[in-house]
Please model this.
Amino acid sequence: MFNLILFGPPGSGKGTQSERLISKYGLKHLSTGDLLRSEIAGQTPLGLAAKSFMDKGQLVPDEVVIEMISSALDNNPQAHGFLFDGFPRTTAQAEALDKLLNQKGTSIAIVLALQVSQEELIKRLLNRGLTSGRSDDVNEEIIAARIGEYEKKTAAVADYYKKYDKVVFVHGEGDVDEIFGSLSKEIDIRDRA
Ligand code: ADP
Model:
């Protein structure tokens, strides 16, 4: 199995690059944001609980997303590998993920961290808000809250994986194909499965 984390702040291009990476490398895409939005659409108890946090630009509680990822791993026993997008977002989530993967006899091979300036992030998110239908992309205050959560709680996840020498930073501004090329190159160096 080859498991990777695509890491970066909101608006750094994780969703866009994930789509390409899963099709090139045959990975199963696990985006906690997408999973949560589908829970909301289905009006499940989990979705209803998560919505109030998401509407404010705050992180959903760890136990909720960890449980969701745990089920997703169990539901995909045939996967050749997973691409985690938007997860883990706290050190507690990273520790939980390591445990879950360990139980399945596998681990994270690499954390690809997209680097984008704050000015560019805000521009992209507001722009996405014009068409995405995502209410958290329309309001500048909510966008600022999401970036604040990233800095306060999520940036530390990179430090966690640095201890294991798993983090590679990739410049996330400019041409989408070029960024995809940089990400692919880093995977190809390590993917000997
Ligand atoms: P973006 O990367 O643009 O913020 P996502 O779709 O990844 O978009 O996340 C949208 C929202 O879903 C977040 O602001 C947060 O409220 C919630 N969320 C997604 N993933 C997680 C997670 N791993 N832990 C906690 N909350 C999460």
